[in-house]
Design brief:
By secondary structure, this protein is an alpha/beta fold. Helix content is 36%, strand content 23%. The chain has two domains: 174 residues, Flavin prenyltransferase-like (Rossmann fold, 3-Layer(aba) Sandwich); 217 residues, Rossmann fold. The chain has an eight-stranded mixed β-sheet, with helices on both faces. Strands 2-1-3-4-5 form a five-stranded parallel β-sheet, with helices on both faces. A hairpin with a 5-residue loop joins strand 19 and strand 20. The longest helix is centred in the last third of the chain and has 20 residues. It binds cytidine-5'-triphosphate.
Length: 410
Amino acid sequence: MRVSDPLSGRTIALCVTGSVAAYKAAILARILVRAGAKVLPVMTASGARFVGPVTLSGICGEPVASDMWDASFAGELHVSLAERADLVAIVPATADVLARLAQGRADDLVTALALCARCPVLAAPAMHPRMWGHPATQRNVADLAAQGRVVLVGPVEGEVASGEVGTGRMAEPEAIASAMAALFSPRDLSGMRVVVTAGPTLEDIDPVRFIGNRSSGKMGFAIAARAAARGADVTLVAGPVSLPSPAGVRRVDVRGAMSMRAALWEALGPDLSRADALVMAAAVADHRPANPSATKLKKGDEPSTLALVGNPDLLGEIGAARAGKRPVLVGFAVETGDQDALVAYGRRKLAEKRVDLVVANQASDSFDRDDNRATLVTEGPPEALPAIPKTRLADVVLDRVKALLRLQAH
Ligand code: CTP
């Protein structure tokens, strides 16, 4: 079982340049350290004006390198860092740094390091949308793409420091970390088409009230992110969650079970031929209000009992419609009983929904957590996994999907 993080044991030179988004570099550093990476903080003089070097050295447990002219360092700092790093990440990358990278200049430690590095170089641009849209910046970005030496992550559309909205906002630290993990991941799922569902479904009572299941969406998003990082073609059907889209994933946002059903069949195709695997991590509500109101119900007008109708079992329908063994079907089961009950419920869902694998876990082991302790239930003996980060569990589930697809090919 592979449970190590692709970032674990990697040495990452994290270069912070002068943008308001520099504070997010500290969050990224924390994510990387927690994933087991060694982070070597590097800052430009202007980067150090936005976030304190002590913050970064405290998080990384390494001194901040910023001065190319530091005579107390024996040797050449940029060369030494370039040799130690498995990845140079410039987060945030200003318009000025992109311009200097495009030109191949080496007038500070960050650009000298990027020029010297033979490992991958990643940059997460952050700037005002007018600066990003300027022809000079776009030409620099095109030059960098043509050189093929720097992988850009973002920028994304959203609110920037000035309060204006547009493309120029730095990608979120989690998305940058997954893009980094992707650089270290085998592309062993390329050619595989995966549909993943995530999050809850919310069933409206009226425009301001709903019923729904508890789910942060973290597990499904982790599966989508890791599948894309490993080269799969991924469609993520997401219920209402507040999570950034993983890099390289086609995302379809839905609200209720009926809209999730429509999006699922669209992604899978009427004969299920558009996907090789479906991983159903969404917590689909089993019922919806029978008579949702188009206007807000006023106090006193609401019925004291809520009439409900059953939602279809989305995975069960797909299991019943599947003629052969494709797509591979994976369900989840969140339960509250003991381990024996967990396995028994998992087995029942495996048979009733006609799926290949059920990932079963206790509600208390997964809700609102970044890790999860799951038991894999198949026709064979159940396999209880230790508590591992959801990104790792995602890799384990995808390894199983890959093995099942390989079995069918023979
Ligand atoms: N599921 C689904 N459609 C539903 C309910 C659940 O596709 N209407 C899927 C979930 O996405 C999950 C699996 O079925 O992959 C099991 O979900 P769960 O809620 O645990 O199972 P239920 O069938 O609803 O059974 P119960 O609530 O009785 O445990």
